Amino acid sequence: MNMNQYYDLDNGKNVMFMNDASSTSGYSSSTSPNSTNRSFSPAHSPKTMELQTDFANLNLPGGNSPHQPPMANSPYQNQLLNNGGICQLGATNLINSTGVSFGVANVTSFGNMYMDHQYFVPAPATVPPSQNFGYHQNGLASDGDIKHVPQLRIVEQPVEKFRFRYKSEMHGTHGSLNGANSKRTPKTFPEVTLCNYDGPAVIRCSLFQTNLDSPHSHQLVVRKDDRDVCDPHDLHVSKERGYVAQFINMGIIHTAKKYIFEELCKKKQDRLVFQMNRRELSHKQLQELHQETEREAKDMNLNQVRLCFEAFKIEDNGAWVPLAPPVYSNAINNRKSAQTGELRIVRLSKPTGGVMGNDELILLVEKVSKKNIKVRFFEEDEDGETVWEAYAKFRESDVHHQYAIVCQTPPYKDKDVDREVNVYIELIRPSDDERSFPALPFRYKPRSVIVSRKRRRTGSSANSSSSGTESSNTWMP
Questions:
Q1: Which residue, 118, 174, 276, 422, shows the most beta carbons closer than 10 Å to its own?
Q2: What is the DSSP string of 269-300?
């Protein structure tokens, strides 16, 4: 036995201990029983034993801790490990590459759990150098040089307003979804370009919701061989063909309310199967998908959609690899909807009214919503600035079948005008501040009392002028 010493950091002094050369640990856990000055190895010093006791009694939060929400819907549930196994992170289990499950829901101490970090630290995605386009798993450029990262750019946005048609209206020819800058000649269409990439690729166009990165229940259709083909629509691009994809002759089919859940669920299921590269989904995945679809279908805006553009590379084994993050177009509003369609006054029952207001006026209009419409009267100066405005009075019951409004004109700001005043009338939809175009002219007529008073003044001034002329003529030689 050899006496050695070590420095105790807790007490700030050297502590003697006996070194047993035959011990495999290099430390002796005991001294002579007759010794009055017991010494310990570093592994069995009083401070070390005290720390080990405290750590063993340490209570750690279980799997149901409110500070650690479950990761049931995390996109990183299945991660590829260094050794090729799969680490699944769930709400109650940790599964290593050998398939052994470690329950964590009721674990309160990790003192006796052995973890080999090579089994639980997810490895980076295994991508061959030829397929690594400068993206980390979070989608950002790895070298900080975004100029060399493939990306999609929308060249031509779709029109802001387009008529959504029901299937029963799709017989014969129908209008196509044009570009925002389209004219009678030339016409434009939604167009997207793939930048910073020089291989063959596929650009996909789908119909999505405006408030979620999720498919819409309506259908984006293209007419092919006397039949309507539903989205998604794919166009191949390459160095020879060019990298601009123009989607022409597309229409939007309005899905009836009773079929919303069915159509949306089918689209979401097809998309998930495609993303996971599987033939079918598990029972649990289908249940979660149904619950998610029910929530989305309940709040879906049926009069507003947008286009989603995606780019893919098709591998030799047939796998589709995303090249760039998807991009989304501006919102497309249903032209024929009372909530999003164009506002227009077709005809007025009369173009004039008194300055005192309360004259009955009937407006024939394009489709409006009785809960979301106002009739505005306004006056502009020579510079086009609004100098007066007021709103007509009417009730919801005064809106007749969404195509006529019976209202009372508002009084003009000046009740004593002695001439007609030219103003304008327009419709306003408060939900999106949409206004009818063009605004129609309307004239306010002065009160009859003011007109009579003006006539008397005009007549008296004329009489005095004529009498003065006669008097002057009398004095002429």
A1: 174
A2: HHHHHHHHT-SS--HHHHHHHHHHHHHHHHH-
- Residue 404 maps to a domain: yes
- Cα–Cα distances in Å, from 159 out to 181, 191, 447? 8, 12, 47
pTM, two decimal places? 0.58
How many Å apart are CA 410 and CA 408, to the nearest integer? Answer: 6
233, 238, 240: which is closest to 310 by C-alpha? Answer: 233
Domain count, the chain: 4
CA triple 265-177-230, angle to 5 deg: 30
Helical H segments across 66-194, by residue range: 117-120
What does each C-alpha distance from 301 to 209, 232, 429 come to in angstroms?
Answer: 8, 20, 17
Taking the CB of residue 214, how many other CB atoms lie within 10 A of it? 16
CATH number at residue 409: 2.60.40.10
Q: Is 213 inside a domain boundary?
A: yes
The least confident of 61-65, 175-179, 291-295, 323-327 is 61-65
What are the tens digits of pLDDT across the range 256-294? 999 999 999 999 999 999 998 888 899 999 999 999 999
The residues that bridge with 361 in the sheet, in sequence order, are 407
Task: List all residues 6 or more positions away from 68 whose beta carbon is below 8 Å from its beta carbon.
Answer: 61
pLDDT mean over 38-48: 53
Under DSSP, the state recorded for 214 is S
User: Is 475 inside a domain boundary?
Assistant: no
Q: How many helices (H) and strands (E) does the chain have?
A: 5, 28
pLDDT in tens, 15-42: 665 554 444 444 334 444 444 444 445 5
